[in-house]
Amino acid sequence: GVMVLGLAGCGGSSDDKKEDAKTEDTAEADSTDADAAKEEELKTIGEKPEEDKEGVLSVKLKNLTGKVITGVAVKNEKDEKYPDNFLKDEDKFETDEERVLWFDPNAKDEEKDAEAKDTEETKEEDSKDAEAEKEVPKYNIQLTFEDETTAEIHTFPFGDTEEAELHLEGEVAYLVFDSTSQKKSFNTLETEQ
Predict the structure, then answer these.
(1) Which CA distances in Å does 35 have to 10, 40, 53, 126?
(2) What is the pLDDT of residue 110?
(3) Percent of the chain with pLDDT over 70
(4) If you compute the radius of gyration of the chain from its CA atoms, what whole number of angstroms results?
(5) How confident is the model at residue 101 (pLDDT cuts 50, 70, 90)?
(6) Per DSSP, what are the bridge partners of residue 139?
């Protein structure tokens, strides 16, 4: 009987060692996880480009509409239709959540760029193009809410603000943002109505 006890005792002590090692490992893993979580970037809406591409627009949006947003789409005012939803299926932009919206206005215009290169040969058209270039494209954002209603924000200030708050007044969605060019805060409720 004594021997059995002795063996059990030995087993116990080596087990203890193993367990100690385990707890240390998990403690380390936990701390790195926590650090990673702190540094975690905000969720995105739309695809963040792999490289820093020129012309890609990004802005931090805060959902203060009081509703869960299930759809976000951006289009040039000249385009007739909105593209596909920038939010993936099942991905909801919760109330009070902040996300970074990425929008690459040039993603679909590659064909147009090719055409533009052709016209560069004729100088007259060049100057016309230059004039057209000056016109700042205006973008609209369409929001779709969990209750299936939609709201549109016109002339979104891409490039003129780093973060904007999305608000909703009745059926009207509007923005509150600080304009970098005009160094003041804007509320677009009146223009949206």
Answers:
(1) 39, 9, 29, 53
(2) 47
(3) 65
(4) 27
(5) very high
(6) 76, 156
Bridge-based pairing of strands 172-179 and 184-187 is antiparallel
- Other Cβ atoms less than 10 A from the Cβ of 62: the count is 19
90 vs 15, higher pLDDT: 90
How buried is 110 (Cβ within 10 angstroms: 0-12 exposed, 13-18 middle, 19+ buried)? Answer: exposed
Distances (CA, A) of 39 to 34, 45, 96: 9, 18, 19
pTM: 0.67
Q: Name the nearest CA neighbour of 77 among 156, 160, 144.
A: 156
Cα–Cα distance, 123 to 5 (Å, whole number):
98
CB-CB contact of 141 with 72 (8 Å): yes
pLDDT on residue 30: 52
The answer to whether residue 131 scores a pLDDT higher than 80 is no
Residue 78 is encoded by which pair of tokens?
A: 């000249």
Q: How does pLDDT run across 35-63, given as a tens digit for each residue?
A: 555 456 899 999 888 887 888 999 999 99
- In sequence order, what DSSP letters do the residues of 87-143 get, joined into one string? SPTT--B-TT-EEEEEE-TTSSTHHHHHHHHHHTTSHHHHHHHHHHHHSPP-EEEEE
- How many helices and strands in the chain, by DSSP H and E? 4, 9
